[in-house]
């Protein structure tokens, strides 16, 4: 699965990485302009599981080290990373300790991490037919599997989910176990579905918790669009009804769906974003307080000051003075 032509690779492992190698299989060090990575994988019928340890030398996007056409389930064990389809602007992010599903139609995926940090993740690579076996038990997967089968690349629409301690232990057992040869393949055939069930129950639950509403991929895309609009147009805030009309949802679905996806109300999300932006401007720029108030969507300084003090515990002028020493 190693992508040839773009990178050089060797099976000579640096001493610093010896304890991270996967036993019983060939481990490779891949090098390129992006930095270097330690990779190793195990394969079985319809699936593969690969570990990647990355030391990026740049913050720029770089083509995937592996050819992973089909379904991917990347699990970020250490470090956060971003991905995109080559040549496009739309990005997805998987923070440390989280995972998601991804369809790769072979259009060329690119990734990036913060230079100077070390990242480690384990990725399950599945054929579309393999994942399709789980659709009867996780109906929310149906449209995602159909899109993947049709050659589309992207996420199923759900936000990344947090890995559990049980999942972390299972990943370690997949990569580090006492079995070899056909017995190891048999072991993987039993354990991969177990890990996948735990993962699917978090990103595509078979049932809706009480009070939740069913969200289609279209709905989730529109809720994400609303979130981006809030962040990019903070100085021109809309009412919830206006925002719903702008993205093409009714206000009930937008309010309910937003809370479902992000765990906070639209109001609380916007307040947090405003305060984060205000803190950045106060501490890192010389922007006057009254301009910061307008830049964060407040009509006057008194409203901004009251909201800031309630959230932070003291008025913005105090933080401004802290910047000055």
UniProtKB/TrEMBL annotation:
User: Which domain of life does this protein belong to?
Assistant: Bacteria
UniProt xrefs under Pfam families: HTH_18
Q: Does the keyword rRNA-binding apply?
A: no
Report whether DNA-binding shows up as a keyword of the record: yes
The UniProt keywords, alphabetically, are:
DNA-binding, Transcription, Transcription regulation
Membrane spanning stretches: none
- InterPro entries referenced in this protein's UniProt entry, alphabetically: Homeodomain-like_sf, HTH_AraC, HTH_AraC-typ_CS, PchR_regulatory_protein
MF annotations from Gene Ontology: DNA-binding transcription factor activity; sequence-specific DNA binding
Give all residue intervals belonging to the HTH araC/xylS-type domain.
224-322
**Protein name, UniProt field:** AraC family transcriptional regulator
Q: Which lineage do the record's taxonomy fields give for this organism?
A: Bacteria, Pseudomonadati, Bacteroidota, Chitinophagia, Chitinophagales
